[in-house]
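To close the chapter, one final illustration. This time we ask the reader to focus less on the individual chains and more on the assembly as a whole: which components sit near each other, and how the overall shape emerges from the parts.
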Amino acid sequence: DAKTTQPPSMDCAEGRAANLPCNHSTISGNEYVYWYRQIHSQGPQYIIHGLKNNETNEMASLIITEDRKSSTLILPHATLRDTAVYYCIVKGGAQKLVFGQGTRLTINP
Amino acid sequence: GAVVSQHPSRVICKSGTSVKIECRSLDFQATTMFWYRQFPKQSLMLMATSNEGSKATYEQGVEKDKFLINHASLTLSTLTVTSAHPEDSSFYICSAATGAVDTEAFFGQGTRLTVV
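The assembled structure is written out below.
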């Protein structure tokens, strides 16, 4: 079963920052937070992951709260191509990736 | 990121026939591969996990005799849907991982299977 809770949908204006929240209150000490996204009819695309420190890469930033019970994925300047379903997944070690329902993010012009 | 190639991207087959889907990791060695199925407007559902050289581990409710998985090398896993029926029509997606603790899994582009 998925260990995360995400809002089912969000809207964001093009050019603005999109902030996608995720709750993972039962996360264990050795579990990482992973974010993937899936554009319609494609395989999921890896975005970013982290353990407890904030992370940033060319796609996004990941902010993890100090107690690690929640996190936020930030797309700094959303474009229309960022419209997708975003999945927040908690995984430790060799565990499999279990997908929840994700957040359907729509970027509006 | 690493590249995982899945083939074919689309396939139509007749009811009762078998279909093989290939998943290749092109630039890394995948000790573990995962197979998912996704129905319209639903999330990905994990079907099975395969480790190179050993039998696949199937999730509850997935028929291992119907969905045959082979992971004979560190770069190739195959999923064979045997005696396909219309209800097997779905989007099948593979992912591959090195097995290291702090590394991400990469996904293929998916295979749209339609059984007629």
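Chain A has a mean pLDDT of 93. The first strand of chain A starts at residue 9 and ends at 13. With these observations in hand, you are ready for the problems at the end of the chapter.
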